[in-house]
Structure formats: C-alpha cells, structure tokens
Amino acid sequence: MSAPVPGTPPRSGETVASLPGWAQKLIGDLRSESAGHRQSAADLKAERDALRTEANERAASAALAGLSDVLTDPSDLTRFVDSASLLGDDGKPDPGKYLEAAQTLVSERPHLGPRVASAGGAPLGGVGPYQPARSDGVEADVASGRSAFVDLFQSSE
Length: 157
Fold this sequence. Notes:
The structure is a single chain. The chain is 50% helix and 0% strand. The chain is an all-alpha fold. It is rod-shaped, with a radius of gyration of 39 Å.
C-alpha cells in the first residue's frame, strides 16, 4: 500500500485503522489536541457569558438606582416593563430607556411615583403621625386655655 498523497480524498473503505501506525498516531494526537482546544473554547465562552451577564446586571442596577427620583421603588420598573425593551442597540442596559420607561410607568400608574408632601408637611392622602400635646406645667396649661381642666384636678387634692 502506498502512502496517501496530501490533498487527495481517502479511498473508499479506508479507515484510520487501515493506515500505517505513524499516521494513526498523528491523527490521534491531532484529535486530542483539537478536543483540548474545543474544551478551552467552551470554557472561555462560558466565562465570557458569565462576565457579560454580571456586567449587564451591574449596569441595570446602576440604571435602576438612578430612578429613585421618578419611582418610589425603582425595582417596580422590572415588574411592569419588559426588560428587553430597556436594552440599547448593543444589548446593554440603556439608562435613557430606563428613565423614559419609568416616566411612562408613573404617568400610567401614579401611585408608583414618589410621595409628594403637602404644604403642612404630611404626605398627601393622610395625616402625619399623632403627636400628643406636651404639658410644661400648670402655668402653661392655664395660659393655653385649659384652666377649667386644671382647676378640676387642683380642687380634688
């Protein structure tokens, strides 16, 4: 059997086992090397994808953090808006699209926006927390118009 000429197709019925030992060893070594390269490439792709995901999550978190003036809870944006619509042309989170989507969401659902304080300082829609009046003594109570109440207690002693 003559040695195969490089660049010529193999003869029909010819297998690796039918080749000379040196050719079988060379083919085995090349296949092993190729398998190692394929595994390295797969590992690097997985690492790249993990790093890309981490970078996108950081960018998304930063974009959400910048929405605290527009939304009471910036994470509401991810509950009501498709995250794919918040990505730029490069596939990364786009802070401009986040802001635009947050403003649209607040216009559609005003209760998700920040609470606005009234002129008295209490939030709209309710009163502030109860704060009982403090008494600094009998003289202060009498001066504030509570003299009848004070007299009632002073006469019982």
